[in-house]
Amino acid sequence: MENINNVTEFIFWGLSQNPEIEKVCFVVFSVFYIIILLGNLLIMLTVCLNSLFKSPMYFFLSFLSLVDICYSSVTAPKMIVDLLAKDKTISYVGCMLQLFGVHFFGCTEIFILTVMAYDRYVAICKPLHYTTIMDQERCNKMLLGTWVGGFLHSIIQVALVVQLPFCGPNEIDHYFCDVHPVLKLACTDTYIVGVVVTVNSGTIALGSFVILLISYSIILVSLRKQSAEGRRKALSTCGSHIAVVIIFFGPCTFMYMRPDTTFSEDKMVAVFYTIITPMLNPLIYTLRNAEVKNAMKKLWGRNVFLEAKGKK
């Protein structure tokens, strides 16, 4: 296939073509993005400054927050600026980089959530062996595996798209570059590429989701043997994990477990996993986790004390 590429930029249709709705969306999503940055940075600071890194659960939670910031930053700033812009354009190279970033950080988040489920499984079902199984070296290797897995997944997606010819039109009915909307613009048959993309994304999304469901089912069954206090604490922690998994994987499965087709609802569904989930993660993990809340209170109390001492 000869790669004839006459397209140097793409034009987004954005979330809406109504100027009034765009102004409202600008305010709403600007607030959402600020919450994403502040909430996830607060979790990272809390984990680092309170030495919670030694606990595998908080070790992975801090990196989940880092990935959430990066993941939302790939799409949100551009979308927010475009809400007030007359021309919603992105260069061809910028589009490919955005596509890579969305799948890299999105897939890394999926793998981190899977690793966090495994951590909870070991902590609850094999408590006597927990420190041996989840030592720092193994945690580092598992974390590295999540990043490598995310990179391999995204590089395959981009490699499949960049070898396609684009001759026009160049308008994308979305607010960021994703595989299915971009494939629609290729001036060649994309059936095989679409199947490979679906298998690549779908296998990871569905496979990880099934693993997570099995892990948390085993955990919930094993809780019957726990004391009332242990059961309450475990349910509090696992409940927050399960909530994040459902909010994130539901939209992802809808988007990537189907053939190479696009729907008008795709943009609103994408908002859930690119903006809503990264915004809710800090709230879910802090509101349902007493240890994180206490660590934040200590951090806030320490800062207030130092500020008061500095004024004397």
From TrEMBL:
UniProt family annotation: Belongs to the G-protein coupled receptor 1 family.
Record Pfam families: 7tm_4
Any Gene Ontology CC annotation: plasma membrane
Subcellular location per the Swiss-Prot or TrEMBL entry: Cell membrane; Membrane
Signal peptide: none
The G-protein coupled receptors family 1 profile domain, residue ranges: 39-285
Topology of this chain in the membrane: Multi-pass membrane protein
InterPro entries per record: GPCR_Rhodpsn, GPCR_Rhodpsn_7TM, Olfact_rcpt, Olfactory_Receptors
Molecular function (Gene Ontology), one example: olfactory receptor activity
Lineage: Eukaryota, Metazoa, Chordata, Craniata, Vertebrata
Transmembrane segments: 26-45, 57-76, 96-121, 142-166, 204-223, 235-256, 268-287
Name assigned to this protein: Olfactory receptor
PANTHER family noted in UniProt: OLFACTORY RECEPTOR (PTHR48002)
Keywords: Cell membrane, G-protein coupled receptor, Membrane, Olfaction, Receptor, Sensory transduction, Transducer, Transmembrane, Transmembrane helix
PROSITE patterns, A to Z: G_PROTEIN_RECEP_F1_1, G_PROTEIN_RECEP_F1_2
